[in-house]
Amino acid sequence: MPRKYIYLIITYFAMQFSIFLAMPFVPYIDDLDTFQANWSIASFAIALIISIYFIRDEVQDFFQTQHKKIGTIILWSVLGFFLVMITQGVAVVIEMVVFRIPPGSENTMELMDVARQTPLFIVIISILGPILEELVFRKAIFGSLYKRMNFFFAALLSGFIFAAVHNDFEHLLIYTSVGMVFAFLYVETKRILVPIIVHMSMNTFAVVGQLSVDPEEIEQQMDQIQELMMILIGG
Q1: Is 188 a catalytic residue?
Q2: Chain center to CA of 10
Q3: 4: which residues sit within 8 A by CB, 6+ positions away?
Q4: Which of 67, 110, 166, 227 is labelled catalytic?
Q5: Catalytic option among 133, 134, 171, 199
Q6: Is residue 134 within 8 Å of residue 48, measured between CB atoms?
Q7: N or C: more exposed end of the chain, with fewer CB within 10 A?
């Protein structure tokens, strides 16, 4: 793995654990939730700037005219969005039917709760997070694995790591399968920009959908979906 990718991964995980640096100040903070949200926004932004610096040579290549294929990027971004949504839907059904796992991610609900309290946090969910995660999990981790093994195992392993980092093991199948689709888009287009756009679109779609509906109504809808699936499979 190139040294710059190692630095990229280290930066990402340092950002994830950076909140521990603020622990000594916690007793003096009045609004802890807002502080944590603002800390996350700042740490994500700083980590992204540092990450882009590490791969600045590759970022510069994108802006060279002879390598631009805007039409292809747009086409694959649109196709990729629908492919991800279909894959996610299939994974949800499999989890419900085979593993009897109820729909709805606790990790997603927690993020939406933070977004409702601190709207600026949406910047992480919709923009900063997808960019940084695709650089780390697809460009650095998957890209390095793909040079040493076939696509399926490289995508599966990097997708599993992607799922594990989200700390939502109950929905491991969803995160892993979606991560594999992102890897497919990266390989097919040879541009990390495409999975970044698709990831941003998917997260933004989820944010709009979640924030436009009352949390209690979402919970009721999830319960109704679960009951319907149980009836269909004779549970």
Answers
A1: no
A2: 18
A3: 54, 55
A4: 166
A5: 133
A6: no
A7: C
pLDDT tens by residue, 187-213: 998 888 899 999 999 999 888 877 776
Contact 141, 161 (CB under 8 A): yes
Q: Render pLDDT for 48-91 as a digit per residue (tens, 0 to 9).
A: 999 999 988 887 666 554 455 778 888 999 999 999 999 988 98
How many other C-beta atoms lie within 10 A of the C-beta of residue 52? 15
What is the structure's pLDDT at 64? Answer: 53
126 with 203: CB under 8 angstroms?
A: yes
**140-145 long-range contacts, CB within 8 A, separation 24+:** 140/1, 140/5, 140/6, 140/8, 140/9, 141/5, 141/9, 142/183, 142/186, 143/5, 143/186, 144/1, 144/2, 144/5
pLDDT at 62: 60
> What string of DSSP letters covers 173-215?
HHHHHHHHHHHHHHHHHS-THHHHHHHHHHHHHHHHHHHTS-H
